[in-house]
Amino acid sequence: MGRTFFEKVWDDHVVADLGDGAFLIHIDRHFLHEVSGAVSLKEIDARHRTVRNPELTFGTVDHVLETVPGRGMTTRMPGGDDFLREFTERIGPHGIRFFDLHDPRQGIVHVIAPELGVALPGMTFICGDSHTCTVGGVGAFAWGVGSSDSEHALATQTVIMTKPKTLRVNFTGQLRPGVHAKDMILALIAKYTADGGTGYAIEFAGEAVRSLPMDGRLTLCNMAVEFGGRTGTVAPDEITFAYLKDREFSPRGADWDRAVAYWRTLASDADAVYDMEYELDCSTLEPQVTWGTSPEHSVAIGGVMPDPAASADPIARTSRQRAADYAEIEPGSPVMGLPITGAFIGSCTNSRIDDLRAAAAILKGRKVAEGVTAICSPGSTATKLLAEAEGIDRIFIEAGFEWRESGCSLCMSGATGGESFPRDARVIASTNRNFEDRQGPHVRSHLASPVTVAASAIAGHIADARAFASKEDEQ
Amino acid sequence: MSMQPFASETGVCAALMRNNIDTDQITPGHTGMKVQKTGFGEGLFFNWRYLPDGGDNPDFVLNQGPFRDTKFLLAGTNFGCGSSREFAVWALRDFGIRAVIAPSFGAIFTSNCYMNGVAPIILDEAAVSAIAGEIAPDHCTMTVDLVRQVILSPDGHEHRFHIPDLQRERLVEGLDAIDATRKRDDQIAAFQTADKLRRPWVYAVEGAAA
């Protein structure tokens, strides 16, 4: 019997079989950031351990670091300065490559790792952040770990893990104009629930995925963890190779040719069997927006708030009722038209150049509605500079958006950059988590694609971007 | 810090029967993250446990009578989903919780539990609901036996579970994983030597020493 893409990658990384399903797995790339990385490096130092393979390890600052212009090594997050200082002081002596605050390669780990060619197909890639699965978009087997697993990897270049089962998600058909990768993943999670992929190594496949450019694939894989996945990947193809060629840390010359030849062998064999298969038809898919406090609380933009009482399972019913109470939306009422006071485009989910270009096409020549605080934080310093070279920053600023430095920014209240939306605000965001209090105290977060966020910022309420044809198209 | 061994424990069991209790709820991002691995018990379930004025929320189970000494927590599906923050497990552990029992868990959370002497125990939804239904303030003592892999509910019903041998032995003995893996350094070195021939580009990082 043939092997799946995931099984081929897994087999090539087994150092030892530890019995009863547990394995010692080699880590090809380990990325540190200042929150989990500060803790793991502090423990390494306290126990006088050495970093086994510093040349396979990278670091940057993205979480606690502020995104306001003129930022420095202090932050509004209480205790945050300690993370920035300890991480910066401790990483250097270990010989780990570090993209600091002033480095043009600084950015959100999951945005810069593919952008720099640090994450490559067929690699194992970890970081102390749950959205590490993002870089599965380039065909890496990537997953988030805690500080202790990170410490284990620093000391041994391995982690202990149970072999996950495999799940293939077939996205059939082609997306219609105005529908994006974010809509695909939100619809998937809504269809199969937030633990529908729990524990699985998920492979995103099908016609719609093959047509997605790299930025869309990264968005898709980003939210694999919101589906419970251990990892989310897209098997590498010509789009992947073209994206990675000549990136700073991509292989060069004969090494590149050898690497591509190996990567071509990784796609699942025709007779490979997955433990589970799911399907979602993209040809009829509508733009999505969430109403509640879990990414599974998603509906089509023209849809209505579902009735929690309709859930058959009593725990699910209680959970959805609690979410409905938090969201303060009446069952049966439309989600479109809900007034918002905040809009955020950024985060490891949707802050790449394609996202900014698509949002700019909506924003060009228009103004953010009065009373809406609109903020954009590009996913990396390099993305910010590229956007500025294209004049995208001017479009955002003239529309009324704040144009920020790169980092996790307003994705997470208090801890990322030390900022929050004000208490009780209703905001629309291109991020990945609409959890209670995630973006501020009792803040109601609605997740959507960058174009839906841009259109809603202009309208002052949740809006369908397809009604906002680009001004250039109208001429 | 070293892990506290966990062979068989008896204590108070509380039920928090909601699905998708994420690590942002277990330890909200704004609640005193520190560059250390201990001292997070006070922040556990911060937004649910405390009122905006800082006082205890009397409606939250862990503030009620015997449940202030909760050792085992029952929950709905997908407990510990969300952020990888290990602070969530450290907060549970520092509060005194030794095991969480749920139908499913976030994968990263599960791994973090093993690293810190907290047992993530999977039981099917019917079993979790059955135990939750037995609990009352004067009837909440339960036993979790990791050696026999059995839970003895407040009513005395046995529920069997499985934790992979390696992880279970580490929980029972309180063993440090890094020390154990370092003994396999020859195997790791041999793996890398062979792998360099097959995938040289993985190891030939431009300007390797920073």
> Hey, roughly how much beta strand do the residues of chain A contain?
15-25%
According to CATH, the fold-level topology of the largest domain in chain A is: Aconitase, domain 3
How many distinct folded domains of chain A?
A: 3
The coarse overall form of chain A would be: globular
CATH architecture of chain B: Alpha-Beta Barrel
Number of helices of chain A: 16
Instruction: Quote the beta fraction of chain B.
Output: 15-25%
Oligomer: heterodimer
Average pLDDT reading of chain A: 96
CATH architecture level-2 label of the largest domain in chain A: 2-Layer Sandwich
Which strands sit side by side, in order, in the main sheet of chain B? 4-3-2-1-5-6-7
- What is the helix content of chain A? 25-40%
Q: Largest beta sheet of chain A: what is the strand line-up? A: 5-4-3-6-7
Largest interface: A-B, 96 and 65 residues
Low-confidence blocks of residues of chain A = none
Q: What coarse outline of chain B follows from CA principal-axis ratios?
A: globular
Total beta strands of chain B: 7
Function (chain B): Catalyzes the isomerization between 2-isopropylmalate and 3-isopropylmalate, via the formation of 2-isopropylmaleate.
Keywords (chain B): Amino-acid biosynthesis, Branched-chain amino acid biosynthesis, Leucine biosynthesis, Lyase
EC number (chain B): 4.2.1.33
Pathway (chain B): Amino-acid biosynthesis; L-leucine biosynthesis; L-leucine from 3-methyl-2-oxobutanoate: step 2/4
